[in-house]
Amino acid sequence: MISNKNNNISSRSMGRVTLADVAEKAGVSPITASRALKNPQQVSEKLRTKIYDAVNELGYIPNHAARSLASSETKIISVIFPSLSNAVFPDVLDGIHDTLAPAGYRILLANTHYETDQEEILVRTLLEQNPDGIIVTGIDQNENTRKLLLGSKTPVVQIMELTDFPIDMNVGFSHFQASYDLVRHLQNAGYKKIGFIGARMDPRSQRRMEGYKHAMQEIGISNNDYVLTNQSHTSFKLGAKLFNQLFTQFSDLEAICFSNDDLAAGAMFECSRKGIRVPEDISIAGFNDLDFAEELTPSLTTVSIPLYEMGKKAAEYLLHKIVNRTNPDSLQYDVSYKVVERKSTYTDFS
Amino acid sequence: MISNKNNNISSRSMGRVTLADVAEKAGVSPITASRALKNPQQVSEKLRTKIYDAVNELGYIPNHAARSLASSETKIISVIFPSLSNAVFPDVLDGIHDTLAPAGYRILLANTHYETDQEEILVRTLLEQNPDGIIVTGIDQNENTRKLLLGSKTPVVQIMELTDFPIDMNVGFSHFQASYDLVRHLQNAGYKKIGFIGARMDPRSQRRMEGYKHAMQEIGISNNDYVLTNQSHTSFKLGAKLFNQLFTQFSDLEAICFSNDDLAAGAMFECSRKGIRVPEDISIAGFNDLDFAEELTPSLTTVSIPLYEMGKKAAEYLLHKIVNRTNPDSLQYDVSYKVVERKSTYTDFS
DNA sequence: CTGTTAGCGCATTCAG
DNA sequence: CTGAATGCGCTAACAG
């Protein structure tokens, strides 16, 4: 008699319907039932319908843990972000989700709150799930984390920025170059005294600042006093505060680049409150091109990033490697960026 | 000889280090090794250190699937949101994450994109993981989804709003009442001709609109022409567009309530572009009190919701039920809300 | 196309 | 405090 022990429900079994129950009801062996669900074409139509009927009647729901244990495939992708309140990540996550969900993969999400130690702990925890793939933010994992990831044999995509030494695959763009380009653009438009305001100063903000500094050095106006950074979490309020701090001290500044749109918008709100005219009195530029950027008055000059596409591409890389067990054509993908000039920096210097 | 078959690595095994390997190396039985990891105080210190050493030397990472299968505990909480781009959800998710992560639980995230059919599919998929708990958004699950959830015996929390017929537990607030209160507040301040603009019109936007309508009926100014809704996804741009549509037609409107802050801000941006004065020419109110609300010029009157706390509370309810196997003191928790009056509706009618 | 056998890695009994 | 036996539910491998 084919049967599991559900007859005399043990305390261990949840009393749930198992594949064996389905098989029994359909009068087939468990493995046939299994195949009918995973590779329907391998099972005759007659048995298939019988099995499907049994599934529906019994309300069978597969047990994922058992499936994973037997097949060593979990259909889980782990995603590690430094933050969710930062509006860029939900967009990236959407791209990831929309690509993975249709392929039957689920997302295990974790949040480091921008703490590198947390990252190591989270990677360790997430690896216990044997995810079929992992997406991590940035390229600055510590040595232990890298080792863990490498040793896990799990496909990994580092996203948001590019590195010459990826753990595995890599999808992003150069924050340094993007920021550099933005500043050069302003310089070409005639700006000379340009400041930089950044918060949180995670690795990517850091590199955006470096891009700014590099551009300023190139035209020989490298003044560290024009740079103001802060370790606090980014916010509109903080943008306002830092703007006041810098602009009060250096009212001769012609433009200020902010490490992100939130800070920039916060500054613009402050200008609006104080009657400071943008761009006449001070020009302002952001980074990310969040959706409010072009709606502000004046509209905000910034750098546009294809966030959703970045998530999508990362997920595609992962799927490719999981399904084909081979690397995609290239291990690295540059999603690029675009400097978007708007009215917040439109000044006629002639 | 205690050993698993890793000596002659089969194609099924991943060749990974197992608990048996650790046990062998430490010279103990697998179960002792298991206990050393889960309930250290049950194992003598001598053996414990031996086992820990073995774990570190071998780089052992527990296999979650095996653990789940044996213990029928997954340490996974499934979370279903209708959207991530909507800024309210990342905040809620943060509250959930920050409560669950320290307790050793992981979050499996899914996104319905506001489609109810998707929800059923996702619930079905997520149930395969045997999550220890589930958090779903809203109270409008379809009959199948309810049945699935109920049948799963898994603790469930419905969040964002309140219902008299919860599936299990329920954490949220009354959108109807919150919106009603906001409108009453405006009415008490002297406003009579108040409009309503909503987008997407998911169940919660719907109920906010009902709250508005109810308040308007009470003072006998119920004019459906003053209501403009749209099924598109919410955005700043759409706020501007809908505002134009309504205000062009009814320039006698004194105030407009928007179903969320994004739309309201979009309208304010449009006003700023067109030189329409807020609140002198038209007053504007939002909903949610996102962080930009008080930074706008004028600052935005809105309804403040404790999003992070809502997520936290939902997670706590879940943990309570999982750990104690009993219901929390109450199955329902009202996180409440607060009407926040700011300058965008400050008009002197005297 | 279908079935048999065996085992994935761990934790729950129940014994000592 | 430690261990032996057993099974969680499913699927890979090999037959037939």
Automatic annotation (TrEMBL), chains A, B:
Source superkingdom: Bacteria
Pfam families recorded: LacI (PF00356), Peripla_BP_3 (PF13377)
Classification via PROSITE patterns: HTH_LACI_1, HTH_LACI_2
Coiled-coil region: none
Keywords: DNA-binding, Transcription, Transcription regulation
MF-aspect GO terms: DNA-binding transcription factor activity; transcription cis-regulatory region binding
UniProt cross-references to PANTHER family, sorted A to Z: HTH-TYPE TRANSCRIPTIONAL REGULATOR GNTR, LACI-RELATED TRANSCRIPTIONAL REPRESSOR
Name of protein: Transcriptional regulator, LacI family
Lineage: Bacteria, Pseudomonadati, Pseudomonadota, Gammaproteobacteria, Oceanospirillales
